[in-house]
Amino acid sequence: MQIYWTKINKIIEETPEVKTYMLDCPEDFTWEEGSHTHFAMEGFNAGEKPNRSLVRHMSISTLPYENSIGITTRIREQCSEFKIILRNLEVGSDVALFKTHSNVPLKREDKNVYLLSSGVGLATFRPLVLDYFERADNVNQMHSLNIDSSSNFLFTDIFKSAPDKQFTSHFVDNRKDYYNEVKNLAADKDGLFYVVGSDEFLVQNIEVLHDQGIKPKQIMLDKHEQQLPEFLSFDLSI
User: Which architecture, in CATH terms, is 4-102?
Assistant: First the structure.
C-alpha cells in the first residue's frame, strides 16, 4: 500500500460548519470524478498497528485539472477526536492519503443523471458536475437535488441551474420537500440515480426509488461492490 504524504496549501471556509482543505498533489497521485480516499493525520502509522481514530474515509471534491486535492467536511462544535485535530491544522500541516478509488464515476449511457445528496455529501458530486460541464458526451442532462437542514447550501457557484448546459440544481431544507421531489424525479423510469449521504439516507432513498419502480442497476452508491447487496438486496424480487 502506497501512502502519499502531502501538505495543506489552503483552508476554505465554505459555511460556518464546513471547510475544504486543499492539499498539494503528490507526484504520481491520480484520481477521477467520484473518488474517495483515506485521509490520515500524522502519527496514524507510528505504532505496530494503524491508529484508526486518526484516519477517515473522505470524498475528493476537486478534479485533477484544479491542481489541488480538495477534502470537504463538516466540523461541528461537538465532534470526534479526528475532527478536533483537523480543526486545529493549519496551512503547511502534513497529512497522508492512501487507498484512493472511485465507486461513482460518471456513467455516459445517453440517459438523464440525477444526483441525490444530503449536506456535505454534495462534495462527492462536485467533480461529477465539473466533468459533465467539461464534456457532456452521452449524458442527456443532469439534475442535482440536495437537502441541508442548516440552509447553508454548499458550492452554490457550481450547483446553480444552467439551461444552456442541460443542468438543473435544487436545494431544500426539509425531508418532506426532498422526498416529494425524489418521487417526481423517479418518474423518469430510465434515469440513473446517484445517492450520497449517511447509510440511513441511502436506505430511505432506495426505498422511495424502489417504490417508484427504479431498478437496482439504475442506483449508484458510493460503496464498494461487495457492500452493494446490503443496500440493494431487493434485486432478486425485480
Answer: Beta Barrel (2.40)
DSSP notation for 163-179: GGGTEEEEEESSHHHHH
Find out whether 38 and 101 touch, Cβ atoms under 8 Å.
no
How far is residue 201 from each of residues 66, 75, 231, measured CA to CA in Å?
30, 19, 11
Q: Which helix (H) or strand (E) holds 183?
A: helix 175-185
| Residue extents of the structural domains in the chain | 4-102, 111-237
103 near 221, Cβ under 8 Å? yes
Q: Do residues 196 and 128 make contact, with C-beta atoms less than 8 angstroms apart? A: no
Place of cell 479526528: 82
CA distance 55 to 195: 24
Tell me, what amino acid is at 169? S
pLDDT at 50 over 50: yes
Contacts of 24 (CB under 8 A, 6+ apart): 6, 7, 9, 68, 69
Write the secondary structure of 102-142 as one string of H (helix), E (strand) and C (coil): ECCCCCCCCEEEEEEEEHHHHHHHHHHHHHHHHCCCCEEEE
Q: What pLDDT digit, counting tens, does each position of 186-196 carry?
A: 999 999 999 99
Residue 195: name the closest of 211, 176, 212, 208 by CA: 208
Kindly write down the DSSP assignment for every residue of 46-101, as one continuous string.
SSSS--GGGEEEEEB-S-GGGSSEEEEEE--SS--HHHHHHHH--TT-EEEEEEEE
In terms of CATH architecture, what is 111-237?
Answer: 3-Layer(aba) Sandwich (3.40)
pLDDT tens-digit map of 103-113 = 999 999 999 99
